[in-house]
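Box 3.1 A note on notation
Throughout this textbook, protein chains are presented in two layers. The first layer is the amino acid sequence; the second is a token string describing backbone geometry. Keep the layers aligned when reading.
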Amino acid sequence: MEAQDLIHADLLRAAWKKSSLSGDNGGNCVEVASNIPGIVAVRDSKSPNGPALVFTPGEWRAFLGGIKLGEFDA
């Protein structure tokens, strides 16, 4: 997928899911949509009409792998 395709991704059909670890207290949460072929979108749950970050599935897998390996721990 080309970078230009990611920029113009149509997220109208996105099925957003919030982490089960987020709880119901309205705290800081992200939502992820992975139901659109070729992209994974991420947005702030407190701003559902705001911007979304869009990644290829490979980029998203690499990010999640980094989290699991502790690459982003402070």
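The longest strand covers residues 40-44. The chain has a mean pLDDT of 84.
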